[in-house]
């Protein structure tokens, strides 16, 4: 157990919060957008940010007859997307009088000297809350169902279009309408033309069509599917899936958590990984985990991937197609203290007098960005 002085040094607290937030969610780690991840981007933004779009081309250069001048074409256009960074700012006050009279949670027979054990646990809890903030942004962005609600100065996330009777504002991830519901991705009809709950539905055909659509839309390929156990049970019970692997072989290969990168594997406590014998290069992530989202005091449990739906990913998850941009703001850590610019996730503690207390703070200015919206599809596969 670190000493109270070590624990409450601002830089130590920030490192502790970042570490806990960074390993609290496998989905962030999968996409490399956990605090300190490879796809966390800092371009010196404050409250406002932007990124540019410059697409690769799939047209063929123009041919010309011998002796003629070079053909002329317009420059490849560039787009610009502007945004405002959402702001998370939370704190936990801990009265010295209360801390002074606590026993250790891990050993009630031992006095918690200066509340060090409780301070450490509350610091970890703030780290988990901070991780859940970014987790909600990522899941909502991937599904294009991230909504923001306001009550006074409080701001909250919700996957639902309304939070009770309160209106919410959608955060546009710009996934095309055809990449949702039954996946009319190319405008030629629904790819999910029958429910996966029916054992004779041609699920392998659907997967192949989704892969082909990704190739046409963005040049990508179907690399991963995220779903819950309801959808996964329907997949492995499917007759066409069974026909491909044969009666003497299992329909899927379970991928052990130890077989993936160590830090990512540690975060996958509530996730199963598998591959089907059909399209064995597609990794399936099966999870029923969720978050409590909505108006403060009226939160409801909402699954990251709802029952009967599946998220189809048309790129390698960690290739930078999805990124987390970090903004910044000036913060004085205590009254009369100097202003310092805090970028992305940050945390600190303050000693207060009258009454004597310790306050733990966490701050984050960040936004999950989907650079290629048509590289994702969120389909209802059981209906």
Key terms:
single chain, 383 residues, alpha+beta, 7-stranded mixed β-sheet
The DSSP helix count reads 9
Spans with pLDDT under 50 lasting ≥5 residues? none
End-to-end separation = 52 Å
Mean pLDDT across the residues is 85
Order of neighbouring strands in the sheet with most strands: 9-22-16-10-13-12-11
Gross morphology is globular
* Gyration radius, rounded: 24 Å
Written account of the structure:
This protein has about 375 residues and is α+β, with helices and mostly antiparallel strands. The strands form six sheets. The protein has a seven-stranded mixed beta sheet with strand order 9-22-16-10-13-12-11, with helices on one face. Strands 1, 4, 17, 20 and 21 form a five-stranded mixed beta sheet that branches. A hairpin with a 6-residue loop joins strand 18 and strand 19.
């Amino acid at each position: 157990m670190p000493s109270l002085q070590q624990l409450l040094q601002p830089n130590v607290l920030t490192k502790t919060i970042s570490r806990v937030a960074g390993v609290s969610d496998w989905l962030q780690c999968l996409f490399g957008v956990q605090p300190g991840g490879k796809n966390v981007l800092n371009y010196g933004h404050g409250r406002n940010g932007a990124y540019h779009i410059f697409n690769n081309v799939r047209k063929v250069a123009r041919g010309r007859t011998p002796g003629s001048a070079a053909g002329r074409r317009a420059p490849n256009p560039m787009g610009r997307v502007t945004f405002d960074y959402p702001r998370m700012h939370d704190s936990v006050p801990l009265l010295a009088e209360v801390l002074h009279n606590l026993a250790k949670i891990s050993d009630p027979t031992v006095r918690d000297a200066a509340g060090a054990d409780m301070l450490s646990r509350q610091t970890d809890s703030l780290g988990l809350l901070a991780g859940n903030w970014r987790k909600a942004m990522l899941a909502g962005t991937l599904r294009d169902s991230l909504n923001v609600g306001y009550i006074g100065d409080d701001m909250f996330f919700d996957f639902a279009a309304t939070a009770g009777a309160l209106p919410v504002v959608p955060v546009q991830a710009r996934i095309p309408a055809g990449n949702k519901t039954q996946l009319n991705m190319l405008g030629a009809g629904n790819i999910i033309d029958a429910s996966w709950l029916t054992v004779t539905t041609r699920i392998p055909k659907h997967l192949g069509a989704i892969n082909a659509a990704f190739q046409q839309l963005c040049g990508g390929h179907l690399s991963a599917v995220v779903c819950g156990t309801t959808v996964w049970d329907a997949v492995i019970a499917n007759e066409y899936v069974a026909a491909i692997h044969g009666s003497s072989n299992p329909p899927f290969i379970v991928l052990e958590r130890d077989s993936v990168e160590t830090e990512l594997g540690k975060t996958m406590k509530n996730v199963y990984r598998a591959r089907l014998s059909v399209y064995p290069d597609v990794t399936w992530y099966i999870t029923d985990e969720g978050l409590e989202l909505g108006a403060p005091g009226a939160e409801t449990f909402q699954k990251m991937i709802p029952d009967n739906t599946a998220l189809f990913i048309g790129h390698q998850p960690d290739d930078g197609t999805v990124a987390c941009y970090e903004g910044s703001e000036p913060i004085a850590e205590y009254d009369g203290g100097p202003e310092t610019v805090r970028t992305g996730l940050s945390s600190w503690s303050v000693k207060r007098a009258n009454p004597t207390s310790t306050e733990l703070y966490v701050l984050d200015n960040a936004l999950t960005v989907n650079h290629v919206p048509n590289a994702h599809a969120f389909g209802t596969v059981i209906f």
